[in-house]
Amino acid sequence: MTQPAVILAHARSGSTFLAHCLDSHPDVFCLKTEPLHNAQPLRHRFPGASSEAILEALLFQPHYTAACAKIIYPHQTSDALLQTLRGWETRVILLTREDLLRTAVSWAFTSMRESGGLDRPVHSRSVEKPVRVRVDPWVVLGYAQLVRDATRFIVTALDWYHFQVLELSYEEVFGGEHGEIRELPTDVNRQICKFLGVDARYRMRSQLRKINRYPLKEQIENWGEFSAALKNTFLAPYLEE
């Protein structure tokens, strides 16, 4: 029987890279997009089905040892969803990012791109040149607070529902903030394979490259003003890259 699993992650935590890696394993099916965020492309395969029914179909692929989907919290999670996943005995790969500042800045970049204020892809298979843009520090602080609080909530909820959880950080998956990798580190690869019950001899990899791989001071045009505004907040420790 297929082992259902989800990558449960906050925005800009490396979840798409990890999903690509998991899908490269011959015994794992992993949808690279977010079925609860945009189920429309899947409607032709599951006409008339609810988002929950689509997720169930994705997580119980008959020809794979494990099947996985990506869910982003807090926007795509609810008590009802967690109860449903627990009923299916779904295993959770909880992916977080220790550096809340880079997480929040990356999220701000994504929002700017969606509003037409930044010409940069969300994901890429090639190395992107750095761009310098003005960033509102208070918007970044708001994003960081949301991620911090949502992570605390989701950790408590997973414990409450007694999920089997594998906790990983962005820093573990990528081997540091500024490194560039094409396959999962050996230890991370082994942990995931053991958790999903698949062959650990296969090295999982992805062709995606980092988008925001440069130091923040090289990407934020108003870095002096930006860092001064945040120096007395909980983000202060992350200002010194």
What is the top-level CATH class? Alpha Beta
Report the major sheet: 5 strands, parallel
What is the CATH fold-level name? Answer: Rossmann fold
Q: What is the strand tally?
A: 5
Largest beta sheet: strand ordering: 2-3-1-4-5
CATH architecture: 3-Layer(aba) Sandwich
Which class best fits the helix and strand makeup? alpha/beta
Give the integer mean of the pLDDT values.
Answer: 87
Q: What fraction, in percent, of the residue positions are helical?
A: 25-40%
**Span from first to last CA?**
46 Å
Indicate how many domains the architecture comprises.
1
Radius of gyration using CA atoms only: 18 Å
Q: So how many helices? A: 9
Walk me through this protein's architecture.
- This protein is of the alpha/beta class.
- It has one domain (3-238): Rossmann fold (3-Layer(aba) Sandwich), CATH 3.40.50.
- Helices cover 39% and strands 12% of the residues.
- It is built from nine helices and five strands.
- Strands 2-3-1-4-5 form a five-stranded parallel beta sheet, with helices on both faces.
- Helix 2 (51-59) links the parallel strand 2 (28-30) and strand 3.
Briefly characterize the structure:
This protein has 241 residues and is of the alpha/beta class. The protein has 9 helices and 5 strands; from the N terminus they run βαβαβαβααβαααα.
